[in-house]
Amino acid sequence: MPDLYLTAPDNEHFESLADLSARALANASPGELVTLLLVVVASGALAVFLLRRLRAKIPDTRRWRPLWSICVCFVPACCCLLMLLAAYLTARPWIDTELLVVMALASVLQLLIQIPALVLELVFRPVPVLRLLLRCLSWLVCLCVMFAVLQPERDLEHVLDAARAIRLTAGPVRVNLLSLAAGAATAIVVMIVAHGTIKWLGRRLERSTRLSPNLALAMRRIIDIAVWTVATVAVLAQAGVDVKAMAAFAGALGIGVGLGLQRLAASYISGLIVLFEQSVRIGDTIAAGGVKGRVTHMTVRYTTITTGDGIEALVPNDTLTVNTVINQSWTDNTLRLSNSIHIDIESDTAAAKEAILTILSAQARVLQMPPPAVYIADIADGRIRLEAQYWIADPSNGQLNLTSDINEAILGAFRVRDIRAARWLALREPSRA
């Protein structure tokens, strides 16, 4: 890295920043170093105090979180510059001006390095763990850059050569300490960019009115795999890892893992097939794998089916492609229901049918097209079995509750019209003499 040089007002070169810092530290007395340390501690205490006050006043919501990030970036450097200015005005007899200049340049350099990290945080909105790693990385990079700037070029080259000489070996992976550090820093930045990009594309796909929910979910999963694959290759390349050797190793490992987890792999592949074919969609009422209910959630590996009892069953996706699936909502949501009513054989069947049809017509959930109908389904043992058939368009709102309401209304109407329900006769064997 070339040295940074300070220039005089007439643009004439006079010395590098490394020479300035070296001379300032060499000529500093213990008292000046103690005073400089007190200035640094005071600026840190002031920054902590201001950040706590700002944390209490800034709401912890998604809307105000960028403002807090800006404060975390600018407040420490501004406090350090403010305390250095105060020390220059009040403590010049006890501290050399060159020391204050070096500290001020270091503070400005720290602020300039924090700005790219702030831009990444504001644009990609990382999760708390990645946000913490990004801030730690920015401070670490700041310290490394300060060390590089304040060192003569020949000493810096010795340090870099020593870092390259330290080699780490793990199977097919052979890296040195410098490339490993570069790979770790790249990994943090790439994870933040990849995670933010995936979230942004996911929101766009979810809000799209041209794509069905299943197709949007399938595209999001494919984008996840593609983005993270590219990110992994970029990090490995930056770390100095031979990607071809890793690919061969990963291929051999994948064969072994695939044989042991072939059912899991089948579920993932079946999930993509189901999502693209849209044979099962969120909101459908299906019966699969011995479970009947409404589909409430779908992933690449499993589908969540909520039964009428509120129980959530996680059905592997390969069950939906290998076994028979009964989908009551494949073409539309209409479903035919039926109620069986037994009346006495002496009862007026026409009046009973008319009462049942009146009740079905009064139900808001019963469709009038196709119209409900009542049939004489069976005559046996002194009773008549009437079968009422009707259609509904919202089976997800429950079926047993509607059947119960209709049966209760029919019983009330039969009592008013004096229509007697049939009684079951217990047949007994004749006693033997």
Estimate percent helicity. 55-70%
Quaternary organisation of the protein chains: single chain
Number of strands: 12
Residue fraction in strands: 15-25%
Question: Uncertain regions: pLDDT < 50 for 5+ in a row?
Answer: 1-14, 425-433
The whole-number mean of residue pLDDT values reads: 77
Shape: elongated
Q: Please work out how many helical segments DSSP would assign.
A: 13
Task: Sketch the major β-sheet.
Answer: 5 strands, antiparallel
Question: Could you say which structural class the secondary elements and strand pairing correspond to?
Answer: alpha+beta
Short synopsis of the structure:
Residues 223-262 form the Mechanosensitive ion channel transmembrane helices 2/3 domain. It is found in: Cell membrane. The chain folds into four domains: 5-165, no CATH class; 176-260, Helix Hairpins (Orthogonal Bundle); 278-327, SH3 type barrels (Roll), CATH 2.30.30; 335-416, Alpha-Beta Plaits.
Provide an overview of this structure.
The protein is an alpha+beta fold and 433 residues long. The protein folds into four domains: 5-165, no CATH class; 176-260, Helix Hairpins (Orthogonal Bundle), CATH 1.10.287; 278-327, SH3 type barrels (Roll), CATH 2.30.30; 335-416, Alpha-Beta Plaits. The protein is 59% helix and 15% strand. The protein has 13 helices and twelve strands. A hairpin with a 2-residue loop joins strand 3 (167-170) and strand 4. It starts with a strand and ends in a 17-residue tail after the last helix. Mean pLDDT is 77; it is low at 1-14 and 425-433. GO terms for molecular function: mechanosensitive monoatomic ion channel activity. It comes from Caballeronia glathei.
